[in-house]
Structures are given as C-alpha cells and as structure tokens.
C-alpha cells in the first residue's frame, strides 16, 4: 500500500476523470437540453410513481370544514344513492363505491379543478368505502385525495350543514 | 476446500466487477430514467441529477471492467468502495427522511427495490470490496518480499 499510495490516488483520479468524461460526452445531447431546461424535471417524472403508492390522507372534522368553507374541496359521498338521498354533506356529489369500481380509470364524471382537493366520506369510522373510493381516485391520477373518516354521522352531529334528496 | 481458497479471491473480484458492469449497462441504456431515480433521492439539484446520471454509470462500468480483467484492481476496488459508501449514505438518508423510493440501483423503473433491501445489498458489496482490497494488499506484500506472484489467501 505505502509503496505507491500517491500512484494509486493519481490512478483513481485518472480513472474517474476519464470515465466521467466519456459518460458526459456520451450523454452530451441530453445534458445540453437539461442545461437549457428543455427536459422535464426528473423529480416530476418520478412524481406519478411516488403518488401511485401513496395512501390517501385522512382528514379530521375541522380540516374538512375549513376546506369546504374555503371552497377548496370537492366532497364525494361513497355511499349508495338511497343513503345519499336520506342525508349528505351539503354540496357533496354522490359516487357510490360500486359505480367507481366499475370504471376505475375514469371514476369521476364531475370536473375537478387541478388544485382542488377531493374529500371522500361515508358512514363514519366503521365504514371503509370512502378509503376504497379514495384509493381508486388516487390510482386514476387525482393528485389531492383525502378521506374524511368521521363521515356523515360526525358531520351531522357537529351541526354542520346537511342536505337531503338529489343524487 | 483448498481449491475454493485458491479461487475465492478471483471469484469475488470477478463477481463484484460483473455486478457493477451489469448495473452500469442498465443505467447507460436509460439515462433519463436514472436521472429520475437520482432526483427522487432529493439530494442533488436539477442539473446535478442529470450530470450524475450521465457520468456515474460510466465510472461504474470502467471499475467493473478493471475488476473483471484484474488490471489496476486496487484503484478500481477503491473507487467501487467509495461509491458503495456514497450509495449507503444516500439510501440511509432516504430511509431517515421516510422517502418511499426505488433505489435505482439496477433496472430503472422496474420492480421496486426498497431502500432497506438496497442497503443490505450495498453492505454485501462493500464487504466484497474490502475482501478484494485485502487480497490485493497481501499480493503486494508477497511480491515485495519476493515470495512469488499471487500467493492465494490462506
């Protein structure tokens, strides 16, 4: 080792310099366009893959109320048409889980603005349809999907606005 | 047993080199995807990811070839060792920051390898590198004392 420590260091530098230069020369077209900012940011390219495995985030009552009041959220009721007609969060759209599951690539018929959050809910903590629906939406490519786990019962008991009928 | 002892140093060296050549070729084939993998670690800035994606696979390839050929083994193994340390630090930082990413070590955009698996694999490669370096050092000592070439590990 000590015999030619400096020699090894020089050799290492040389190997790295040469192979890195070859690599840069090999990819010069890509690097030039990346330098000019013409290539998609790699972080963005990686983002859908990261989202695909992300679980929908749960939200609490207050957070949902704030988003609804600020008109930044689209509410989706994952329950059946009948349950929806009997009572739902004011302003919510009905998307029963079974219907969404039939058409998982395009589950939503309503237009959702790109920045808006989607909040799914059903019949409270014991009901998992809202989580299943949210997962379908995440898979379909919607970026901001949340689950309101308290659901209709918590909302109603808190005295927040509910509506009847419609679908 | 003695046969194994005789061939083990060369076997480890060539295996390690082949692994790095294989990894390098997969990345060279798809530099954009590899840049995405590098960016997913959120360590390097935008252009840094591309520069790494352009240069790193070729360094891996070169060192892998040196190890397989048995030429300038010490330099090649030292670079591979340092690279492995860098990979381990990057993977550990990804784990600490809770990033759920593909390690991007081999095939890009294929089946996902979790940081923990990749970390374990890199530790194994590091051990192999250390072994190769140790054999090299012994070989050097052997030739200095005139004990003839490449006395196998014993």
UniProtKB/TrEMBL annotation, chain A:
The Rhodanese domain sits at 69-164
According to the record, the segments passing through the membrane are 6-26
Q: Which domain of life is it from?
A: Bacteria
Note the Pfam families from the entry.
Rhodanese (PF00581)
Keywords for this protein: Membrane, Transferase, Transmembrane, Transmembrane helix
Q: Which organism is it from?
A: Geomonas limicola
Record has Transmembrane as a keyword: yes
* Signal peptide boundaries: none
Give the PANTHER family listed for this entry: FAD-DEPENDENT OXIDOREDUCTASE (PTHR43031), RHODANESE-RELATED SULFURTRANSFERASES (PTHR43031:SF18)
Write down the Gene3D superfamilies for this protein, in alphabetical order: Rhodanese-like domain (3.40.250.10)
- GO molecular function list: thiosulfate-cyanide sulfurtransferase activity
Name of this chain's protein: Sulfurtransferase
Question: Does the record's keyword annotation contain Transferase?
Answer: yes
Extract the CDD domains matched here. RHOD (cd00158)
From TrEMBL, chain B:
Some GO term, biological process aspect, for this entry: which one? Answer: methylamine metabolic process
Q: What's the protein called, per UniProt?
A: Methylamine utilisation protein MauE domain-containing protein
Q: What InterPro entries does its record include?
A: Methylamine_util_MauE (IPR009908)
Q: Which domain of life is it from?
A: Bacteria
Q: Tell me the compartments it is located in.
A: Membrane
User: Any stretches that span the bilayer, and where are they?
Assistant: 7-26, 46-69, 76-96, 116-133
Per the UniProt record, the lineage of the source organism begins with: Bacteria, Pseudomonadati, Thermodesulfobacteriota, Desulfuromonadia, Geobacterales
Domain (Methylamine utilisation protein MauE): give its ranges: 6-133
Question: Mind telling me which GO cellular component terms the entry cites?
Answer: membrane
Is-annotated flag, keyword Cell inner membrane?
no
Stated membrane topology is:
Multi-pass membrane protein
For whether the record's keyword set contains RNA-binding, the answer is no
Coiled-coil region(s):
none
Classify the main location: membrane
- Which organism is this protein's natural source? Geomonas limicola
One family from Pfam that matches here is MauE
Keywords noted in UniProt: Membrane, Transmembrane, Transmembrane helix
């Amino acid at each position: 080792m000590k015999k030619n420590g400096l020699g090894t260091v020089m050799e290492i530098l040389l190997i790295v310099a040469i192979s890195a230069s070859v690599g840069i020369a090999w990819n010069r077209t890509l690097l030039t366009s990346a330098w000019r900012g013409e290539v998609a940011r790699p972080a963005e390219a990686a983002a859908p893959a990261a989202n695909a495995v992300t679980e929908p985030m749960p939200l609490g009552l207050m957070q949902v109320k704030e988003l609804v009041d600020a008109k930044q959220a689209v509410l989706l009721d994952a329950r059946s048409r009948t349950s929806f007609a009997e009572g739902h969060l004011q302003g919510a759209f009905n998307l029963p889980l079974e219907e969404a599951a039939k058409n998982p690539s395009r589950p939503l018929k309503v237009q959702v603005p790109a920045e808006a959050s989607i909040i799914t809910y059903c019949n409270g903590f014991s009901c998992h349809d809202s989580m299943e629906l949210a997962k379908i939406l995440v898979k379909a490519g919607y970026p901001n999907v949340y689950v309101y786990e308290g659901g209709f019962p918590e909302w109603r008991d808190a005295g927040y606005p509910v509506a009847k009928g419609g679908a | 047993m003695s046969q194994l002892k005789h061939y083990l140093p060369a076997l480890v060296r060539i295996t390690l080199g082949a692994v790095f050549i294989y990894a390098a070729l997969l990345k060279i084939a798809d530099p954009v995807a590899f840049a995405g993998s590098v960016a997913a670690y959120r360590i390097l800035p935008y252009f840094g990811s591309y520069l790494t994606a352009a240069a790193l696979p070729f360094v891996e390839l070169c060192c892998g070839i040196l190890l397989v050929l048995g030429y300038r083994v010490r330099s090649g193994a030292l670079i591979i060792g340092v690279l492995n340390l860098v990979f381990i630090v990057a993977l550990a930082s990804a784990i600490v920051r809770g990033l759920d990413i593909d390690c991007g070590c081999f095939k890009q955009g294929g089946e996902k390898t979790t940081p923990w698996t990749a970390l374990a694999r890199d530790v194994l490669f590091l051990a192999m590198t250390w072994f190769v370096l140790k054999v090299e050092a012994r070989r050097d000592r052997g030739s200095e004392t005139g004990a003839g070439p490449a006395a196998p590990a014993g």
